[in-house]
Every structure is written in C-alpha cells, then in structure tokens.
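From the pipeline queue, job 12 of 40. The input is one protein chain; the requested action is below.

Action: predict structure.
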Amino acid sequence: MKKIVVGLSGGVDSSVAAAALHHQNYEVVGITLWLMKGKGQCCSEGMVDAASICEQLGIPHHIVDSRELFKENIIDYLVSGYEAGVTPLPCSQCNRAVKFGPMLKYAQEELGIEQIATGHYARIHYDPNSDRYQLLRAVDRQKDQSYFLYDLAQELLAGTVFPLGEQTKEQTRKIATEFNLSTADKPESQDLCLIEAHGSMKTFLDKYINQKEGDIVNLEGKILGKHQGIHHYTIGQRKGLGIAAAEPLYVVKLDAVMNRVIVGDRHAGGRLECNVSRINWVSIAPPTAPIRTEVQIRYRSRPVSVNVIPLDNNRARLIFEEPQFGVTPGQAAVWYDEERLLGGGIIE
C-alpha cells in the first residue's frame, strides 16, 4: 500500500484530498502546520477541523509547531516589506518556505514517507524530454492556484500530488457531501490567513508598524492630504485615500524615504515594463535568450503578452505589449505558455 502525507488546513479542499486518496487505498497520514493562533484555516480553528476529519477517516494526525518558521518567513517578511514601501505577496513565500518544503522534509525524515499532497487547484506533469516537472493550471480556471505555487522548486514538485487539479470546486463540494465529511458545508476562506486572524491587514500591520504621519502628494509634489503610514497603501489603490479631487486618483508610488504617498490619474499608473528578481524557472530550464509569452502581475489579473528578457543574477526584464496598471513592487509576476507555468519572480 502506498503511503502519502496530506496537508490539512481544516477546509473542504484539503479534507476532500485526504478522503479521495484514502478511498484510493493510500495509507494516508494527516499533517497540520500550527502557524499562529486565531480564527480561520491555518489557525487554532483549522486544527480542530483537521483533527475531526482525521478522526472521521480513521487516519493518524500530526500537528507540527511551525509558528517560529511562520514568523520569520511571513510576518517579518511582510512587516519589513511594508515598511520599505512595497506590497509583499505572502502566499507564494509561505508555500515554498513554510508549507511544502518543511512538510515534505517532515514526511521523509520523520515518517519515512516520500510524497505529500494538498488541496491546491493545480496540476503537476513530468516531462521526460526535458527531465523537468511541469506545473500546469487547474482544470477549473476560476479556482486555479498555480500563480501562488510558482516558487516551488523541482524537488518539491517531484514529491507533491494535487488530487483536486483535474476537478472543479463544484465537484469537490459534491465529493465532500458524498463522503459525509464534517467540512462539506464549511464556507470558503476569502482572505489571507493573517486577515482572517486579525480582522484586516491594517489591524495586523498596525500591531507591528508604528503609524507615522506623512503627506499625500500629486505628481507635481502638491500636498493633497495626510496619511498615517505608507503601509496602509498599495500601488493602484483608489478607495480610502481620504482626499477630494475632480477626477479619480490612484496610488502610483510609495516613497518610503520621504514618507509620501504619491497619487495620479489612471494613465499615470500605467507601466510598459518592469524588472523581476528571485526568479524560479519551473516548466522550462532558464532561457539564455528572450522569450515571448503571457504574464500575470496579480492573481486575478488577465494574462497579457510580454517579452521576458533574461538578466544577470536570476533577474529578468518584462516588456509588456500594452501598459499595465498596478504593477506593484513586492508582488509576483508569473508567466505562462497557455496552461504551463514557465516561471515567475518578484517585481522590483
């Protein structure tokens, strides 16, 4: 009988992943990472629901205290980023450094099990011609989570299974009901775990970053209002600026040195190019020449045509076919060839 470790957050997706593999005669071991206290999946509430699923399935359940790892790699990462005027993307960082890497290591070294599975909506395919594991979009494009998984290295993809990648969310709910899982009707998590636990990103950040009043200015430097900390703002933001203007204004730049929020019209927020760093090439080997493909600069953004020009030190320049609004330092740019995720990196 094949053995596999399933990461359980306490939500319906990971519950169905565990139940489906158990039904396929895998010897399943559940594992939940204790990331922080509070409400929501990945927190105290999620651990209780995960334990309930394991009891229902009759499988072992391990809880791994990952709070210090989460603090170092996510909380400190977020705080330092927002203080510097960038908007970090915690999910891809968390998947690589906190979840998949440590979970696979725990499975192999502590349990003697070679594979892990999660409830993510994505697919993995091994290509013998290139000898690489390829990361593919999920069949359910509305639920596809490959964007957040771009930073997984080859060795992590080799040891990972995504049981839900070939099905829709509707099918997942149906399977949960058929298996009579206790999480079948659990509402879907809509926010980052930090927002669920703290109520809002503002509340979370104010706990770690002192509010420091500064100016909101236009592109000419004219003062339009005051802010209570640049960490409350992000590139492309329109609502909640607290200033009156004849036309809609958006945040186009955050100046950490001068402690200023710079605003302009939508046209001023467009960018034809940007640089990315910390690139992880996934489905293809790192290219030595420019490639033309499609890129997403946000999870829900529409893929657009782009030229990816490799640079030194694991960096690249992206030149968009048309100006992109809301190109945000700290967020991930992820490029695809149709359903194949080629690679991604952090916007500088």
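Job complete. Residues 3-197 form a domain with the Rossmann fold fold (CATH 3.40.50.620).
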